[in-house]
Protein backbone atom coordinates (compact mmCIF):
# COMPACT_ATOMS: atom_id res chain seq x y z
CA UNK A 1 0.00 0.00 0.00
CA UNK A 2 2.83 2.34 0.94
CA UNK A 3 4.61 1.80 -2.38
CA UNK A 4 1.34 1.91 -4.34
CA UNK A 5 0.39 5.39 -3.16
CA UNK A 6 3.73 7.07 -2.49
CA UNK A 7 5.87 6.14 -5.46
CA UNK A 8 6.77 9.31 -7.33
CA UNK A 9 5.76 9.31 -10.99
CA UNK A 10 5.85 11.76 -13.88
CA UNK A 11 3.25 14.51 -13.41
CA UNK A 12 2.54 15.15 -17.10
CA UNK A 13 -1.04 13.71 -16.94
CA UNK A 14 -1.94 16.00 -14.05
CA UNK A 15 -0.50 19.09 -15.73
CA UNK A 16 -2.36 18.59 -19.02
CA UNK A 17 -5.54 17.73 -17.11
CA UNK A 18 -5.28 21.04 -15.24
CA UNK A 19 -5.11 22.84 -18.57
CA UNK A 20 -8.06 20.88 -20.01
CA UNK A 21 -10.05 21.36 -16.82
CA UNK A 22 -9.50 25.11 -16.69
CA UNK A 23 -10.45 25.62 -20.33
CA UNK A 24 -13.57 23.49 -20.04
CA UNK A 25 -14.92 25.14 -16.88
CA UNK A 26 -14.27 28.55 -18.44
CA UNK A 27 -16.32 27.50 -21.48
CA UNK A 28 -19.05 26.13 -19.20
CA UNK A 29 -19.36 29.35 -17.22
CA UNK A 30 -19.09 31.79 -20.13
CA UNK A 31 -21.41 29.55 -22.14
CA UNK A 32 -24.02 29.60 -19.35
CA UNK A 33 -24.20 33.36 -19.81
CA UNK A 34 -24.24 33.38 -23.62
CA UNK A 35 -26.83 30.60 -24.01
CA UNK A 36 -29.24 32.23 -21.57
CA UNK A 37 -28.94 29.46 -18.95
CA UNK A 38 -28.07 31.95 -16.21
CA UNK A 39 -31.00 34.16 -17.16
CA UNK A 40 -33.55 31.33 -17.34
CA UNK A 41 -32.38 29.49 -14.25
CA UNK A 42 -31.15 32.11 -11.81
CA UNK A 43 -32.37 35.56 -12.85
CA UNK A 44 -35.91 35.22 -14.21
CA UNK A 45 -37.41 33.00 -11.44
CA UNK A 46 -38.78 34.84 -8.40
CA UNK A 47 -36.90 32.41 -6.18
CA UNK A 48 -34.98 29.19 -6.62
CA UNK A 49 -35.48 25.73 -5.17
CA UNK A 50 -32.30 25.17 -3.21
CA UNK A 51 -31.00 21.99 -1.71
CA UNK A 52 -32.98 21.77 1.51
CA UNK A 53 -31.09 23.53 4.28
CA UNK A 54 -29.52 26.07 1.93
CA UNK A 55 -32.54 28.34 1.45
CA UNK A 56 -30.40 31.30 2.48
CA UNK A 57 -28.27 30.76 -0.62
CA UNK A 58 -30.24 32.77 -3.19
CA UNK A 59 -29.01 34.28 -6.50
CA UNK A 60 -27.49 37.74 -6.48
CA UNK A 61 -30.00 40.46 -7.39
CA UNK A 62 -30.19 42.20 -10.75
CA UNK A 63 -27.38 41.25 -13.11
CA UNK A 64 -25.28 39.90 -10.23
CA UNK A 65 -25.33 36.31 -11.47
CA UNK A 66 -23.89 37.36 -14.82
CA UNK A 67 -20.93 38.81 -12.93
CA UNK A 68 -20.78 35.69 -10.73
CA UNK A 69 -20.47 33.37 -13.73
CA UNK A 70 -18.03 35.69 -15.47
CA UNK A 71 -15.79 35.53 -12.42
CA UNK A 72 -16.02 31.71 -12.37
CA UNK A 73 -15.15 31.58 -16.07
CA UNK A 74 -12.16 33.83 -15.48
CA UNK A 75 -11.03 31.61 -12.61
CA UNK A 76 -11.15 28.73 -15.10
CA UNK A 77 -8.76 30.63 -17.36
CA UNK A 78 -6.42 31.25 -14.41
CA UNK A 79 -6.54 27.53 -13.52
CA UNK A 80 -5.56 26.61 -17.07
CA UNK A 81 -2.69 29.10 -16.98
CA UNK A 82 -1.63 27.95 -13.52
CA UNK A 83 -1.75 31.49 -12.16
CA UNK A 84 -2.37 31.81 -8.42
CA UNK A 85 -3.53 28.23 -8.77
CA UNK A 86 -4.44 27.50 -5.16
CA UNK A 87 -6.53 30.63 -4.85
CA UNK A 88 -8.12 30.12 -8.28
CA UNK A 89 -9.14 26.49 -7.79
CA UNK A 90 -10.39 27.00 -4.21
CA UNK A 91 -12.38 30.09 -5.24
CA UNK A 92 -13.86 28.27 -8.24
CA UNK A 93 -14.79 25.26 -6.10
CA UNK A 94 -16.58 27.41 -3.54
CA UNK A 95 -18.41 29.44 -6.17
CA UNK A 96 -19.44 26.40 -8.24
CA UNK A 97 -20.60 24.58 -5.10
CA UNK A 98 -22.64 27.67 -4.26
CA UNK A 99 -24.37 27.55 -7.65
CA UNK A 100 -24.95 23.81 -7.28
CA UNK A 101 -26.63 24.22 -3.88
CA UNK A 102 -28.44 27.38 -4.98
CA UNK A 103 -30.81 25.68 -7.40
CA UNK A 104 -31.87 22.16 -8.33
CA UNK A 105 -34.50 22.91 -10.97
CA UNK A 106 -31.77 22.25 -13.53
CA UNK A 107 -30.14 19.53 -11.47
CA UNK A 108 -27.62 17.41 -13.30
CA UNK A 109 -25.34 14.68 -11.96
CA UNK A 110 -22.51 16.20 -13.93
CA UNK A 111 -22.75 19.41 -11.91
CA UNK A 112 -22.22 17.30 -8.80
CA UNK A 113 -19.23 15.57 -10.41
CA UNK A 114 -17.70 18.97 -11.11
CA UNK A 115 -18.10 19.88 -7.43
CA UNK A 116 -16.20 16.72 -6.46
CA UNK A 117 -13.45 17.00 -9.07
CA UNK A 118 -12.78 20.67 -8.44
CA UNK A 119 -12.70 19.88 -4.71
CA UNK A 120 -10.10 17.18 -5.30
CA UNK A 121 -8.09 19.54 -7.50
CA UNK A 122 -7.73 21.90 -4.54
CA UNK A 123 -5.37 19.37 -2.96
CA UNK A 124 -3.41 18.35 -6.06
CA UNK A 125 -0.07 19.87 -7.12
CA UNK A 126 -1.36 20.66 -10.60
CA UNK A 127 0.56 23.95 -10.87
CA UNK A 128 4.06 22.59 -10.38
CA UNK A 129 4.96 22.60 -14.07
CA UNK A 130 4.00 24.61 -17.17
CA UNK A 131 2.33 27.31 -15.13
CA UNK A 132 2.67 31.01 -14.49
CA UNK A 133 3.18 30.18 -10.82
CA UNK A 134 6.38 28.33 -11.72
CA UNK A 135 7.55 31.27 -13.82
CA UNK A 136 7.16 33.52 -10.80
CA UNK A 137 8.68 31.04 -8.34
CA UNK A 138 11.06 28.51 -9.90
CA UNK A 139 11.27 26.64 -6.58
CA UNK A 140 7.78 25.28 -7.22
CA UNK A 141 8.84 23.41 -10.33
CA UNK A 142 8.87 19.63 -10.29
CA UNK A 143 8.38 16.92 -12.88
CA UNK A 144 7.01 14.41 -10.37
CA UNK A 145 3.91 13.73 -8.32
CA UNK A 146 2.86 11.01 -5.90
CA UNK A 147 0.98 8.08 -7.40
CA UNK A 148 -1.94 8.69 -5.03
CA UNK A 149 -2.87 11.72 -7.13
CA UNK A 150 -3.53 9.51 -10.15
CA UNK A 151 -5.36 6.84 -8.16
CA UNK A 152 -7.60 9.35 -6.37
CA UNK A 153 -8.96 10.52 -9.72
CA UNK A 154 -9.31 6.98 -11.08
CA UNK A 155 -11.09 5.70 -7.98
CA UNK A 156 -13.52 8.61 -8.09
CA UNK A 157 -14.31 7.77 -11.71
CA UNK A 158 -14.67 4.09 -10.87
CA UNK A 159 -17.32 4.91 -8.26
CA UNK A 160 -19.24 7.07 -10.74
CA UNK A 161 -19.24 4.56 -13.58
CA UNK A 162 -19.88 1.39 -11.57
CA UNK A 163 -22.79 2.87 -9.65
CA UNK A 164 -24.19 4.27 -12.90
CA UNK A 165 -24.04 0.78 -14.44
CA UNK A 166 -25.67 -0.89 -11.44
CA UNK A 167 -28.47 1.70 -11.38
CA UNK A 168 -29.36 0.82 -14.99
CA UNK A 169 -30.01 -2.80 -14.09
CA UNK A 170 -33.75 -2.42 -13.52
CA UNK A 171 -36.85 -3.25 -15.53
CA UNK A 172 -37.50 0.00 -17.39
CA UNK A 173 -33.92 0.13 -18.65
CA UNK A 174 -33.55 -3.56 -19.37
CA UNK A 175 -36.67 -3.62 -21.57
CA UNK A 176 -35.38 -0.41 -23.25
CA UNK A 177 -38.59 1.44 -22.46
CA UNK A 178 -36.88 4.42 -20.86
CA UNK A 179 -34.39 4.58 -23.74
CA UNK A 180 -37.35 4.82 -26.13
CA UNK A 181 -38.81 7.68 -24.12
CA UNK A 182 -35.48 9.52 -24.10
CA UNK A 183 -35.08 9.12 -27.85
CA UNK A 184 -38.61 10.32 -28.65
CA UNK A 185 -37.50 13.78 -27.63
CA UNK A 186 -34.78 13.65 -30.29
CA UNK A 187 -37.06 12.82 -33.24
CA UNK A 188 -36.66 16.34 -34.65
CA UNK A 189 -32.85 16.03 -34.91
CA UNK A 190 -31.50 16.49 -38.43
CA UNK A 191 -30.41 13.23 -40.12
CA UNK A 192 -30.20 11.10 -36.95
CA UNK A 193 -33.65 11.87 -35.52
CA UNK A 194 -35.45 9.08 -37.39
CA UNK A 195 -32.66 6.58 -36.74
CA UNK A 196 -32.88 7.22 -32.99
CA UNK A 197 -36.50 6.05 -33.02
CA UNK A 198 -35.64 2.54 -34.21
CA UNK A 199 -36.08 -0.29 -31.66
CA UNK A 200 -32.76 -1.86 -32.62
CA UNK A 201 -31.05 1.44 -31.81
CA UNK A 202 -32.74 1.48 -28.41
CA UNK A 203 -31.39 -2.01 -27.72
CA UNK A 204 -27.88 -0.96 -28.70
CA UNK A 205 -28.00 2.22 -26.58
CA UNK A 206 -29.42 0.38 -23.57
CA UNK A 207 -26.93 -2.48 -23.75
CA UNK A 208 -23.89 -0.32 -24.47
CA UNK A 209 -24.92 2.07 -21.69
CA UNK A 210 -24.56 -0.66 -19.08
CA UNK A 211 -21.47 -2.32 -20.56
CA UNK A 212 -19.61 0.95 -21.09
CA UNK A 213 -20.20 2.16 -17.53
CA UNK A 214 -19.26 -1.20 -16.06
CA UNK A 215 -16.16 -1.96 -18.13
CA UNK A 216 -14.61 1.31 -19.30
CA UNK A 217 -12.38 1.88 -16.25
CA UNK A 218 -10.92 -1.66 -16.22
CA UNK A 219 -10.48 -1.50 -20.02
CA UNK A 220 -8.57 1.79 -19.76
CA UNK A 221 -6.39 0.42 -16.97
CA UNK A 222 -5.39 -2.69 -18.93
CA UNK A 223 -2.70 -1.85 -21.46
CA UNK A 224 -3.93 -4.37 -24.05
CA UNK A 225 -7.40 -2.80 -24.25
CA UNK A 226 -6.49 0.83 -23.46
CA UNK A 227 -6.38 2.21 -26.99
CA UNK A 228 -9.57 0.44 -28.02
CA UNK A 229 -11.30 1.67 -24.87
CA UNK A 230 -10.10 5.20 -25.58
CA UNK A 231 -11.58 5.25 -29.09
CA UNK A 232 -14.81 3.75 -27.79
CA UNK A 233 -14.85 6.52 -25.18
CA UNK A 234 -14.50 9.15 -27.89
CA UNK A 235 -17.49 7.77 -29.78
CA UNK A 236 -19.56 7.28 -26.62
CA UNK A 237 -18.98 10.77 -25.24
CA UNK A 238 -19.39 12.50 -28.61
CA UNK A 239 -22.70 10.65 -29.03
CA UNK A 240 -23.81 11.93 -25.61
CA UNK A 241 -22.68 15.44 -26.48
CA UNK A 242 -24.60 15.52 -29.75
CA UNK A 243 -27.75 13.71 -28.64
CA UNK A 244 -28.16 14.96 -25.07
CA UNK A 245 -26.36 18.32 -25.34
CA UNK A 246 -24.93 18.24 -21.82
CA UNK A 247 -22.27 20.94 -22.13
CA UNK A 248 -18.64 20.31 -21.32
CA UNK A 249 -19.03 17.04 -19.51
CA UNK A 250 -18.46 14.55 -22.32
CA UNK A 251 -15.22 16.40 -23.02
CA UNK A 252 -14.26 16.52 -19.36
CA UNK A 253 -14.82 12.75 -19.26
CA UNK A 254 -12.44 12.39 -22.19
CA UNK A 255 -9.98 14.62 -20.36
CA UNK A 256 -9.85 12.14 -17.48
CA UNK A 257 -8.40 9.50 -19.81
CA UNK A 258 -4.95 11.17 -19.59
CA UNK A 259 -4.54 9.50 -16.18
CA UNK A 260 -4.77 6.04 -17.74
CA UNK A 261 -1.99 6.42 -20.29
CA UNK A 262 1.69 6.14 -19.53
CA UNK A 263 3.11 9.53 -18.47
CA UNK A 264 5.73 9.22 -21.20
CA UNK A 265 2.97 9.03 -23.81
CA UNK A 266 1.31 12.17 -22.43
CA UNK A 267 4.63 13.97 -22.21
CA UNK A 268 5.51 13.22 -25.84
CA UNK A 269 2.08 14.37 -27.03
CA UNK A 270 1.78 17.60 -25.07
CA UNK A 271 5.10 18.52 -23.44
CA UNK A 272 7.87 17.47 -25.79
CA UNK A 273 10.40 19.76 -24.13
CA UNK A 274 9.47 18.65 -20.60
CA UNK A 275 12.05 16.61 -18.74
CA UNK A 276 10.79 13.05 -18.06
CA UNK A 277 10.75 11.75 -14.53
CA UNK A 278 11.98 8.15 -14.41
CA UNK A 279 13.23 7.60 -10.86
CA UNK A 280 10.13 5.83 -9.45
CA UNK A 281 11.27 6.87 -5.98
CA UNK A 282 9.22 5.86 -2.93
CA UNK A 283 9.10 8.73 -0.47
CA UNK A 284 6.23 8.95 2.03
CA UNK A 285 5.38 12.57 2.90
CA UNK A 286 4.78 13.87 6.40
CA UNK A 287 1.06 14.20 5.69
CA UNK A 288 0.68 10.45 5.07
CA UNK A 289 -1.54 9.76 8.13
CA UNK A 290 -3.77 12.73 7.28
CA UNK A 291 -4.06 11.57 3.68
CA UNK A 292 -5.12 8.08 4.74
CA UNK A 293 -7.59 9.48 7.26
CA UNK A 294 -9.27 12.19 5.19
CA UNK A 295 -8.97 10.30 1.91
CA UNK A 296 -10.43 7.16 3.44
CA UNK A 297 -13.33 9.13 4.95
CA UNK A 298 -14.03 10.92 1.66
CA UNK A 299 -14.21 7.74 -0.39
CA UNK A 300 -16.20 5.95 2.30
CA UNK A 301 -18.83 8.68 1.99
CA UNK A 302 -18.74 8.40 -1.79
CA UNK A 303 -19.30 4.66 -1.55
CA UNK A 304 -22.08 5.02 1.01
CA UNK A 305 -24.19 7.79 -0.53
CA UNK A 306 -25.48 5.74 -3.50
CA UNK A 307 -26.47 2.93 -1.13
CA UNK A 308 -28.73 4.98 1.13
CA UNK A 309 -31.76 4.43 -1.10
CA UNK A 310 -31.81 0.77 -0.04
CA UNK A 311 -32.38 1.78 3.60
CA UNK A 312 -35.26 4.17 2.85
CA UNK A 313 -38.83 2.90 2.70
CA UNK A 314 -40.47 2.42 -0.72
CA UNK A 315 -39.03 2.63 -4.24
CA UNK A 316 -36.59 5.44 -5.03
CA UNK A 317 -38.06 5.55 -8.54
CA UNK A 318 -41.30 6.73 -6.93
CA UNK A 319 -40.23 8.75 -3.88
CA UNK A 320 -36.96 10.22 -5.24
CA UNK A 321 -35.55 9.83 -1.71
CA UNK A 322 -31.92 8.80 -2.16
CA UNK A 323 -31.83 9.60 -5.87
CA UNK A 324 -29.51 12.59 -5.91
CA UNK A 325 -25.77 12.16 -5.31
CA UNK A 326 -26.14 8.50 -6.29
CA UNK A 327 -25.10 8.49 -9.97
CA UNK A 328 -28.60 7.52 -11.11
CA UNK A 329 -28.22 9.08 -14.55
CA UNK A 330 -30.85 9.13 -17.34
CA UNK A 331 -32.89 6.46 -15.59
CA UNK A 332 -36.39 7.82 -15.44
CA UNK A 333 -38.85 10.35 -16.78
CA UNK A 334 -41.31 12.00 -14.43
CA UNK A 335 -44.31 14.23 -14.99
CA UNK A 336 -47.21 15.16 -12.80
CA UNK A 337 -49.87 17.60 -11.73
CA UNK A 338 -50.55 19.29 -8.42
CA UNK A 339 -52.57 22.09 -6.89
CA UNK A 340 -51.82 23.94 -3.67
CA UNK A 341 -54.70 24.82 -1.36
CA UNK A 342 -53.99 27.50 1.23
CA UNK A 343 -56.22 27.55 4.30
CA UNK A 344 -56.10 30.63 6.52
CA UNK A 345 -56.30 29.29 10.06
CA UNK A 346 -58.08 32.23 11.67
CA UNK A 347 -60.65 33.12 9.00
CA UNK A 348 -61.11 29.65 7.54
CA UNK A 349 -60.80 31.13 4.07
CA UNK A 350 -59.19 28.88 1.47
CA UNK A 351 -57.86 29.41 -2.03
CA UNK A 352 -56.07 27.49 -4.77
CA UNK A 353 -52.72 29.06 -5.60
CA UNK A 354 -52.06 30.08 -9.19
CA UNK A 355 -48.58 28.65 -9.81
CA UNK A 356 -48.05 31.04 -12.73
CA UNK A 357 -47.79 33.84 -10.16
CA UNK A 358 -44.78 32.18 -8.55
CA UNK A 359 -42.94 29.78 -10.82
CA UNK A 360 -41.20 29.56 -14.17
CA UNK A 361 -42.25 26.96 -16.74
CA UNK A 362 -39.49 24.57 -15.75
CA UNK A 363 -40.13 25.06 -12.04
CA UNK A 364 -43.77 24.12 -12.61
CA UNK A 365 -42.67 20.91 -14.32
CA UNK A 366 -40.48 19.99 -11.40
CA UNK A 367 -42.87 20.94 -8.62
CA UNK A 368 -45.55 18.69 -10.09
CA UNK A 369 -43.40 15.58 -9.89
CA UNK A 370 -40.84 15.91 -7.09
CA UNK A 371 -41.77 15.69 -3.38
CA UNK A 372 -39.02 17.96 -2.08
CA UNK A 373 -40.11 20.71 -4.50
CA UNK A 374 -43.71 20.33 -3.30
CA UNK A 375 -42.66 20.57 0.36
CA UNK A 376 -40.37 23.54 -0.28
CA UNK A 377 -43.08 25.46 -2.10
CA UNK A 378 -45.43 24.89 0.84
CA UNK A 379 -42.74 26.34 3.11
CA UNK A 380 -42.36 29.32 0.77
CA UNK A 381 -46.09 30.01 0.94
CA UNK A 382 -46.05 29.68 4.72
CA UNK A 383 -43.25 32.24 4.95
CA UNK A 384 -44.94 34.63 2.53
CA UNK A 385 -48.24 34.59 4.42
CA UNK A 386 -46.47 34.83 7.79
CA UNK A 387 -44.90 38.10 6.64
CA UNK A 388 -48.47 39.37 6.21
CA UNK A 389 -49.37 38.15 9.70
CA UNK A 390 -51.59 35.35 8.39
CA UNK A 391 -50.96 31.81 9.72
CA UNK A 392 -51.88 29.17 7.14
CA UNK A 393 -52.01 25.50 6.35
CA UNK A 394 -50.94 24.27 2.91
CA UNK A 395 -52.26 21.13 1.23
CA UNK A 396 -51.12 19.52 -2.00
CA UNK A 397 -54.37 18.46 -3.66
CA UNK A 398 -54.96 16.51 -6.84
CA UNK A 399 -51.31 15.48 -6.80
CA UNK A 400 -50.57 12.78 -9.35
CA UNK A 401 -47.32 11.52 -10.88
CA UNK A 402 -46.45 9.41 -13.91
CA UNK A 403 -43.17 7.48 -13.93
CA UNK A 404 -41.66 6.35 -17.24
CA UNK A 405 -44.94 6.68 -19.12
CA UNK A 406 -47.08 4.70 -16.68
CA UNK A 407 -50.59 5.96 -15.90
CA UNK A 408 -50.44 8.71 -13.29
CA UNK A 409 -51.13 7.79 -9.67
CA UNK A 410 -51.94 9.77 -6.52
CA UNK A 411 -48.65 11.04 -5.10
CA UNK A 412 -49.03 13.28 -2.02
CA UNK A 413 -51.41 12.78 0.91
CA UNK A 414 -53.88 15.67 0.52
CA UNK A 415 -54.81 15.52 4.22
CA UNK A 416 -51.31 16.47 5.44
CA UNK A 417 -50.57 20.12 6.20
CA UNK A 418 -47.26 20.50 4.39
CA UNK A 419 -46.68 23.97 5.85
CA UNK A 420 -46.22 22.34 9.25
CA UNK A 421 -44.77 19.00 8.14
CA UNK A 422 -41.11 18.31 8.71
CA UNK A 423 -38.73 17.22 5.98
CA UNK A 424 -36.87 14.05 6.86
CA UNK A 425 -33.40 14.30 5.35
CA UNK A 426 -32.41 10.70 5.89
CA UNK A 427 -35.58 8.61 5.99
CA UNK A 428 -38.94 8.32 4.31
CA UNK A 429 -41.47 11.16 4.43
CA UNK A 430 -44.77 9.47 5.21
CA UNK A 431 -46.90 12.08 3.40
CA UNK A 432 -45.62 10.61 0.11
CA UNK A 433 -48.24 8.01 -0.74
CA UNK A 434 -47.09 4.40 -1.25
CA UNK A 435 -45.97 3.52 -4.77
CA UNK A 436 -47.79 1.10 -7.02
CA UNK A 437 -44.94 0.66 -9.47
CA UNK A 438 -44.66 -3.08 -8.92
CA UNK A 439 -48.34 -3.74 -9.62
CA UNK A 440 -48.99 -1.23 -12.39
CA UNK A 441 -48.47 -2.10 -16.03
CA UNK A 442 -46.67 0.51 -18.07
CA UNK A 443 -48.59 2.46 -20.67
CA UNK A 444 -47.60 1.52 -24.18
CA UNK A 445 -47.68 5.19 -25.17
CA UNK A 446 -45.68 7.45 -22.88
CA UNK A 447 -48.05 10.41 -22.65
CA UNK A 448 -45.63 12.30 -20.41
CA UNK A 449 -43.78 13.55 -23.46
CA UNK A 450 -46.42 16.18 -24.13
CA UNK A 451 -45.49 18.04 -20.95
CA UNK A 452 -41.85 17.15 -20.43
CA UNK A 453 -38.94 19.30 -21.53
CA UNK A 454 -36.70 16.36 -22.35
CA UNK A 455 -33.71 18.44 -23.40
CA UNK A 456 -33.28 19.91 -19.95
CA UNK A 457 -35.87 18.03 -17.98
CA UNK A 458 -36.07 15.35 -15.35
CA UNK A 459 -35.14 12.42 -17.58
CA UNK A 460 -31.54 13.61 -17.81
CA UNK A 461 -30.61 14.22 -14.18
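Q: What amino acid sequence fits the structure above?
A:
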Amino acid sequence: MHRFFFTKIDNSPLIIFRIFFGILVALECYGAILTGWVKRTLIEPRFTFNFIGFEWLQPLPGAGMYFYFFVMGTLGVLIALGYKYRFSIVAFTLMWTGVYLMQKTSYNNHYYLLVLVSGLMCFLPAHRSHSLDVRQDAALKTDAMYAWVKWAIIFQLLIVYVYAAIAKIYGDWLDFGIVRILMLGKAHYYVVGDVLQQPWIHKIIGTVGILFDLLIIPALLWKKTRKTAFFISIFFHLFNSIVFQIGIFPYLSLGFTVFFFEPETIRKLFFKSKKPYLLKKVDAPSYQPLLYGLGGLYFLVQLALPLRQHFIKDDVLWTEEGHRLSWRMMLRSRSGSVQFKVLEKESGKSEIIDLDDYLSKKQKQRIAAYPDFIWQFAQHLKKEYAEKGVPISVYAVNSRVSINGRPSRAFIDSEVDLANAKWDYFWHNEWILPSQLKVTNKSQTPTILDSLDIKEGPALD
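Q: And what stands out in the fold?
A: The CA atoms of residues 407 and 443 lie 6 Å apart.
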